[in-house]
Write a structure and sequence with these properties.
By secondary structure, the protein is α/β, with parallel strands linked by helices. The chain has helices at residues 15-28, 65-78, 93-98, 109-116, 129-143, 162-168, and strands at 3-9, 33-37, 50-51, 54-55, 81-86, 101-106, 151-155. The strands form 2 sheets. Strands 2-5-1-6-7 form a 5-stranded parallel β-sheet, with helices on both faces. Strands 3-4 form a two-stranded antiparallel ribbon.
Length: 174
């Protein structure tokens, strides 16, 4: 059974980047590793909830949890290390409990807004200000776990120390 590592945090905090860098480093060390992106397990667009007539990707109801959990189950049977990353990585308590390690990336609201204003992944225009505020509020409500000793917290405004992070979760030797 593979090691399951959750990576959560606000949109544009660096979750995908960190997961990719960690997986690449582990593959270089001879591990088999895969990254599962929560955004790839969204329900049908026509079923997404709406906010101000705009599709709302920023609520846990937007995730097809059954498919995500099945993908995690399959991946942990076939890979040494499985990363699952997303805004709601720690929203489901049963899934969070199954994680061997939990990494939470924090960024300030000002850093989020700075990065989000230049993010054109979803169209040719930045998200409207009201929607960026909605993303921030959803993060506070659904995406920010009650942090405890079970989480490694990283600052998404700085470069990630990949080897240091792997040592912190006891994958690479100290």
């Amino acid at each position: 059974m593979g090691t399951l590592i959750g990576i959560g945090g606000l949109s544009r905090a660096g979750k995908s980047t960190l997961a990719r860098l960690l997986a690449e480093r582990l593959i270089d060390e001879g591990y088999s590793a895969i990254v599962l992106h929560q955004d790839e397990y969204v329900i049908e667009e026509s079923d997404l909830p709406l906010i101000r007539d705009k599709q709302d990707w920023e609520v846990p109801q937007s995730i097809h949890w059954k498919s995500l959990k099945l993908a995690i189950q399959n991946a942990t049977q076939n890979y040494d290390i499985v990363f699952v990353e997303g805004l709601f990585a720690f929203h489901d308590p049963l899934l969070t409990e199954q994680m061997d390690h939990r990494i939470f990336i924090e960024i300030s609201k000002s850093k989020f807004l700075e990065r989000k204003k230049v993010d054109l992944r979803w169209g040719s225009e930045p998200e409207p200000d009201w929607y960026m505020e909605h993303i921030w509020q959803s993060y506070l409500r659904y995406g920010r776990p009650t942090l405890s000793d079970g989480y490694i917290c990283l600052n998404g405004s700085r470069f990630f120390d990949i080897d240091g992070t792997l040592r912190a979760i006891s994958i690479l030797p100290s």
